[in-house]
């Protein structure tokens, strides 16, 4: 139950971070947003170091660095995917892959689910697709390149989560610090190389920094959830993060929640209840 609650918290934090990051990207180039969000994320994780501790063993450094590389790749692939479109087809593909791969890893490593979990798991995966699809899913056919990019983005997100899960359980926040430092270095280097293409618009500093803080919180909650529960359950609950984005878009931007998304939210509630029974 503790792992489930932590995973739900991680999912909500990821959804809020994505929403705020999207708002920030409307005001300036997305890399300008990341240039604010990344240092804010790293600052939070450094502040957590004295509280939660950090053991920088070889394994923690290796898995943390791998998660950072995967995070940077996920960022680049995801935004390239959504730029090609159609978003209402590619977004659920990305979300589904990001959930399915860690679930597969968990099952291969010997995790087993009770009957309630065996029913709840596919329901949760179905909810991920319904919530992230939005209105008019399937109205346009994506290109083969777009589908490959969407799969790659989902795989990169999944690899980030799997790498964090594989880090030693006694390493504290070391994998998060190392991963954030690596991903920040990659994205800031990319911003430096592309500085002439970033435009002159100023980023939304407060919104971007808050998105970074929430992303760090989401990573921390996922790490704690994965250490106290099964990756199979934690990953699929975390992948429900589009629900937070959808609800915030409704409350802040007055965007309509479509019928399919409402069904997805209801399905997610049922799935979480069933997974809680495991």
Which features characterize this protein?
278 residues; mainly alpha; 11 helices; 80% helix; 0% strand; globular
Describe the structure.
- This protein is mostly helical.
- Helices cover 80% and strands 0% of the residues.
- It has helices at residues 2-27, 30-52, 58-84, 87-108, 115-133, 144-166, 174-193, 205-228, 231-238, 242-253, 259-276.
- Helix 8 (205-228) runs antiparallel to helix 9 (231-238).
- The chain is globular and about 55 Å long.
- The model has no long low-confidence stretch (mean pLDDT 82).
Task: Report the uncertain regions.
Answer: none
Q: Given the C-alpha coordinates, what overall shape results?
A: globular
Tally of alpha and pi helices: 11
**How much of the residues is beta strand, in percent?**
under 5%
Strand tally: 0
Query: Roughly what is the average pLDDT, rounded to an integer?
Result: 82
User: Roughly how much helix do the residues carry, as a percent range?
Assistant: over 70%
Topology:
Blueprint: H1 2-27, H2 30-52, H3 58-84, H4 87-108, H5 115-133, H6 144-166, H7 174-193, H8 205-228, H9 231-238, H10 242-253, H11 259-276
Helix pairs in contact: 1-2, 1-8, 1-9, 1-10, 2-7, 2-8, 3-4, 3-6, 3-7, 4-5, 4-6, 4-9, 5-9, 5-11, 8-9
What is this structure, in a nutshell?
This protein is an all-alpha fold and 278 residues long. The chain has helices at 2-27, 30-52, 58-84, 87-108, 115-133, 144-166, 174-193, 205-228, 231-238, 242-253, 259-276.
